[in-house]
Design a protein that fits this description.
The chain has 450 residues and is of the alpha/beta class. 42% of the residues lie in helices and 16% in strands. The longest helix has 29 residues, at 318-346. The structure holds 5'-O-[(R)-(carboxyoxy)(hydroxy)phosphoryl]adenosine (KG4) and zinc ion. The site of 5'-O-[(R)-(carboxyoxy)(hydroxy)phosphoryl]adenosine has 20 residues, from helix 9 and helix 10.
């Protein structure tokens, strides 16, 4: 290890050339070194460059010690809303100091879906280790934290409870402010960690538990344009993957249902089966996936009879079915999002010159679905932005970043946690979906050649 004089570091920062390679890689694979941190802030451009004259001011906003450098405000984010135990430490410039995660996916795949008491038990068994690993990868102690941010809504009650009670123990022990986080708001704002995105922007949130279209006007200012009237796309894809018995397929046995469908669909022909997207005549921005799931279910039963195989065996047409369900899902999502963009433009809710569409949540890691949304964005002169796939699925970084956003905006920072409770159900923002339906915007048909 070598020593860098703080003045030289500051000068290098101002030139954006600072580079040190004496840092370690955490167990979870996040590189915790100053080089990668600075590149992140440089390319992401979340914050503008400081004026050249202010070297000493800049130095005061950094903590510098041999081999380490970060911005002063540090937030520990903790996520346990569903089946991932995750944590991360992020500083106010969006540098990830460290993260750790334990995914329960493989356990729940074996039981054919999430069993809440099992999820709770696994969170209990892992949360301590995950937070400890995060802090040690970050090379900070809890005393260095500015606040602790934790998902408290929406999610599985038993899972949320574990994260909240663990966090409150830390908060009380180290006398830190607490920032309660809305899981879907965190998914929506993750893009501001990786890209320079100002408000307002449109966001499509697609995950295992949610399907939402919202206009994001500020850190905690959301207008809800539409949502799923039944299940979420991730839930539907998980059910289809189970019905296709993909867990028995060696290549897909450890993947989430949605990811397995994406991979299998690459070998299929989407023209082999024609399935109409749901709700084509409803001129609103709501979604539905239950009907689609039943249609696929019937199709699989029919094919099983045709091929003379038992339920639970893998169909020879499984890849074609996966391709068809992925295509129909992509078209449904694209059509509703297209209407939302047109609505926002009609009502002057999005800047006509610089309209941004963000897609996030676990299902947004699907590259085929992203391509469909890119076609919509191109046709409406919008810029499509998606966080990298590993930041689309649940993670601790998005929770810590939401904590930073709230800290900077001075929103929802609690010093007294007496009354804090988790909320399994919680809407996102102000619901204006009726107004959207009343506008009854007709969406031109787009050619979806993906
Ligand atoms: O956001 P997330 O990690 O957890 C929730 O908050 O729900 O999303 C999980 C969902 C699961 O349903 C999973 O099957 C789906 O995201 N998913 C995908 C892909 N990767 C994960 N769906 C489609 N394509 C993928 N590549
Ligand atoms: Zn999520």
């Amino acid at each position: 290890m070598f020593y860098l004089h703080p003045i030289n570091i500051a000068k290098a920062i101002l030139r954006n050339t600072f580079s040190v390679s004496c840092f370690s890689t955490s167990k979870s694979g996040i590189i915790c070194r100053a080089e990668s941190m600075l590149i992140l802030s440089k390319t992401a451009g979340v914050f503008s460059k400081p004026p050249k004259s202010n070297i000493y001011g800049l130095l005061r906003s950094f903590s510098v010690c041999p081999g380490r450098l970060f911005c002063h405000k540090l937030v520990l984010g903790i996520e346990t809303s569903c089946d991932d135990t995750a944590a991360a430490v992020v500083d106010e410039a969006g540098h990830v100091l460290g993260e750790a995660m334990y995914s329960q996916t493989e356990v729940h795949l074996k039981t054919g879906g999430i069993v809440p008491p099992v999820a709770q038990q696994l969170h209990r068994e892992n949360i301590h280790r995950i937070v400890e690993e995060t802090l040690s990868a970050s090379r900070i102690s809890p005393q260095d934290l500015s606040a602790i941010a934790t998902t408290v809504k929406p999610g599985l009650a038993l899972s949320l409870g574990v994260g909240l009670s663990f966090s409150l123990q830390l908060v009380n022990r180290f006398k830190k402010p607490f920032i309660p986080i809305h899981h879907m708001e965190a998914h929506a704002l993750t893009i501001r960690l990786t890209n320079k995105v100002g408000f307002p922007f449109l966001v499509l949130l697609i995950s295992g538990g949610h399907c939402l279209l919202a206009l994001v006007r500020g850190v905690s200012d959301f207008l809800l344009l539409g949502k799923s009237l039944d299940i979420a796309p991730g839930d539907m894809l998980d059910k289809v993957a189970r019905r296709l018995s993909l867990i028995k397929h060696p290549e897909y046995s450890t993947m989430s249902g949605g990811k397995a469908i994406e991979h299998l669909a690459k070998q299929g022909n989407r023209f082999h089966f024609t399935i109409n997207p749901p709700m084509q005549n409803a001129k609103n921005c709501d979604f539905s996936f239950t009907g689609l799931q039943h249609v696929i279910d019937k199709l699989i039963t029919c094919k099983e009879k045709e091929e003379g195989i038992e339920k639970g065996q893998i169909l020879s047409s499984a890849a074609d079915i996966a391709a068809a369900v992925q295509y129909t899902t992509a078209r449904h999502l694209a059509m509703r999002t297209h209407r939302a963009i047109l609505f926002c433009k009609q009502k002057d809710l999005l800047s006509p010159a610089n309209a941004v569409l963000v897609v996030s949540g676990g299902v947004a890691s699907n590259l085929y679905i992203r391509r469909a949304l890119e076609i919509v964005a191109d046709a409406t002169q919008c810029t499509l932005l998606c966080p990298p796939p590993r930041l689309c699925t649940d993670n601790g970084i998005m929770i810590a970043w939401n904590g930073i956003e709230r800290l900077r905006a001075g929103l929802g920072i609690l010093h007294d946690v007496e009354d804090i409770r988790y909320e399994p159900k919680c809407p996102l923002g102000v619901d204006i979906s009726k107004e959207v339906a009343e506008a009854a915007i007709k969406v031109p048909r787009l050619k979806m050649t993906i």
